[in-house]
């Protein structure tokens, strides 16, 4: 009888766990924020008031690879993203579908809609998904963290980045 009860308990436990909402690509995890879909980011941004950080890259790009392996793993960068942004990655050559305010397109088409000229490029969008600005090129962690804090804290509204740095 104990075997039956423990089997029944495990079955109920598994059913209960499977019925919990799944938080796929959760924005904040133990290891910091993770990129999520554009559609999900737009929804979360409008609800939270956070800005959207769009990381436009290409698989073949060595500077993009360095951004992902070094810069986006830096604690100060992850902290700034967590504090101010919802992170989205867009591959300029991908046929994966994204949804931007009800318009479905590929990631490559979305990158073109952003008028992306080079990779890597970081775009800053407000909570409605409108472009606030962009920064092309590889950026070392300390400078990138500072840029994220500058834009995220809205300091760009009252001073230049140079003034913010000083």
TrEMBL record:
Pfam families the UniProt entry points to: Thioredoxin_7
Signal peptide coordinates: 1-26
Q: Which UniProt keywords apply?
A: Redox-active center, Signal
Respond yes or no to whether keyword Signal is given for this record: yes
- On whether Glycosyltransferase is a keyword of this UniProt record, the answer is no
Please report the stretch or stretches of sequence annotated as the Thioredoxin domain: 14-153
**Which PROSITE patterns does the UniProt record give?**
THIOREDOXIN_1, THIOREDOXIN_2
Cross-referenced InterPro entries, in alphabetical order?
Answer: AGR/TXD (IPR051099), Thioredoxin-like_sf (IPR036249), Thioredoxin_CS (IPR017937), Thioredoxin_domain (IPR013766)
Task: Write down the PANTHER family for this protein, in alphabetical order.
Answer: ANTERIOR GRADIENT PROTEIN-RELATED, THIOREDOXIN DOMAIN-CONTAINING PROTEIN
Protein name (Swiss-Prot/TrEMBL): Thioredoxin domain-containing protein
In its UniProt entry, the species of origin is given as Rhodohalobacter barkolensis
List the taxonomic lineage. Answer: Bacteria, Pseudomonadati, Balneolota, Balneolia, Balneolales
């Amino acid at each position: 009888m104990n075997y039956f009860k423990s089997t029944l308990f495990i079955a109920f436990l598994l059913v209960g766990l499977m019925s919990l909402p799944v938080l796929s690509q959760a924005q904040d995890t133990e290891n910091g924020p993770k990129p999520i879909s554009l559609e999900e980011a737009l929804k979360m941004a409008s609800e939270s008031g956070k800005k959207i950080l769009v990381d436009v890259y290409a698989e073949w790009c060595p500077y993009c690879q360095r951004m992902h392996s070094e810069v986006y793993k830096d604690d100060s960068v992850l902290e700034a993203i967590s504090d101010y942004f919802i992170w989205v990655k867009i591959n300029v050559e991908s046929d994966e579908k994204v949804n931007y305010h009800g318009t479905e397109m590929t990631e490559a088409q979305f990158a073109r809609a952003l008028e992306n000229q080079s990779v890597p490029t970081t775009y800053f969008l407000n909570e409605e998904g409108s472009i606030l600005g962009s920064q092309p090129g590889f950026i070392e962690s300390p400078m990138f963290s500072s840029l994220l804090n500058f834009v995220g804290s809205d300091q760009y509204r009252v001073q230049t980045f140079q003034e913010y740095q000083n």
